[in-house]
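Inputs:
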Amino acid sequence: MFKQMLVAGAILAALPIGANALDAPIMGSVQSKCSITTDTPGIYGNPTPSMLSTAATDGGIEPVIRFDVISADYYKAVIATPQDFSSSPTLTDTVVWNGTVAVAEVSDPLMSGYDAAKRVYNNVSEFDLTVAGTTWFSITSDASYGFDKSWPAGNYNAIVSAECIAL
Amino acid sequence: MQRKLQLVGLVLLAYSSYSCSEVIFSQTANASALAHQWTMLNVLPQAAGLTVSNVIYKYRVEKIAADPMVVAVQNENANGSGYIFRSVDDWSGVPGNNISKVVPVGAIPIDAWGDGSIEVTGKGTVEDPSVVYTYRYDTCFIPTPDCPGYESPLDLSMVPVFVYEDPLEDAMVKQALELQELQEEEERIIQEEEEEKETLEKILGGVNSTLLVADSQALYDSMFAMGGIPVTYYTSIPGGVYTEVLKYNSSRMPDNKNARRVGLATQLKHEEMVNSQYDK
C-alpha cells in the first residue's frame, strides 16, 4: 500500500504544474429514417342517428396514413384507432368504439404481407416495416352511442394515433 | 388617357409573355385507361426536345395469396431492342393489394419511348391500372423568332456574289512569271556550261595525273635499282594484334637522401628569388 502511494506520489510530482486540459466535443445528429404523413383526413358519416362511421358505405371517408421508411427492418408502425372524441358535444351516455387498420396501398408487393403479420391488441395495430418504401394504412372507425341513442347535434372530432417506433 | 395606358400595359404584357422561352413541366393522362397496351404517340405530346422524367403507376392486384404472379409495367425501346423502361412487381406468395410507384427514369428523350404495356405472368388480374408519365420540354428547343437570343438564318440574297478570278490570268502576275521563267532558263544555261567546264577539267586532270604517275613510277624504278630505298618502304608488315611486351613493375621509389641537401638548397634559392621581387 505504501509502495502504491509512493508510485502515485511520484507520478503526481512528475506532472507539470498548471498543465492544460481540453475537452473536444463530438457532435452528431440523427435524422429519422421513418416519416409519417396524413395522406387523407377521415370524415365520420352519420348513417343512423346513433352511429358515426368512416366507412364509405356510411357516407364517411376513411383516413389514410402514409409511412415512409428508408431502411427495412428498423421500424414498426403502431397505429391506434380512436377510443374517445378529442372534441364533441357533451355526452351523457357510453360510447362503443370499433376500429380497424389495414394496408391500403404499397410501393412494393412484399408489403402486402403486412396485414397477415400484424399484431392487434385493444385498439392498437402493430406492423413490422420489413420492406423499405411507402405503405399506406387505411383506418376504419365507428362509434355507437348508448343503446341506439341519437348523437347530440354538434361537431365530433377524434384522433388516430400513428407512431413509428424503432425496433 | 388612363385607357391608353392600360392598353399599352396589356400590349407590353402580351409581348413579354409571347417572347419568353418557357420550360413546360407536365404529366400525361392515364396511358392505360383503355387497355393494358398503349401507343406512346397518343400519350406524349409531340414536342421537340421533350424528355420523360418519371413513370408513376398504380394498379390493384386481385389474386389468391399462394398463387404465383408477376406484373411488369414496361415500354419498348423505340431505338433498339428490349425495353427503355421496365418495372417488375413480384406478387408471388403475397395477397393482392393496391400498389403505387414512382419510378424516376432520368431524362429519356421522347424518341426512345416505344409502345407501353402491362404484362401479367402467372395467376391473378390487374385492375384499375394507371400509368402516367411526367415530362418536360423547352418551348424554345427549336428557336423561333419569338425566342430570346434568336438569330435569324442567313439570307443568301444578302450575301455579295463573289466572282472568281484566276490570279494566274493577271497581267502583272503573268509578266512576273515570264520574267522568272527567263531567269530560270538563264540559270539553267549557266549551270550547264559550268558542268561542261568541270567535265573538261576532270578529263584533263586525269591525263595529267596519268602522266605524273608514269614519271613517278620511272623515278621509283631508278631509285629502287640503285638500292636507295630502305627495305621498310616496300616490305609489308603482317597484320594482326601486336600486344605490349614491355612491362614495368611498379615499386616504391625511395627518396634520395643524399639529394635532400640539394633539394633544400634549391628550395631556399627559389624562395629567395621569389622574395627578392618584393625587396626594393
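Chain B has a mean pLDDT of 84. Flag for discussion at group meeting.
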